[in-house]
Amino acid sequence: MNSKQVINDFLTQKKIAVVGVSRKKIKFGNAIYRELKQKGYQVFPVNPRTNNYEGDTCYPDLLSIPEKIDAVVINVPPAQTEKVVREVNEAGIKKVWLQQGSQSNEAVKYCEENGIDCVSNECILMFAQPSAFIHRAHRWIWGVVGKLPQ
Question: Which domains occur in the chain, in start order?
Answer without folding.
Answer: 4-144 (3.40.50.720)
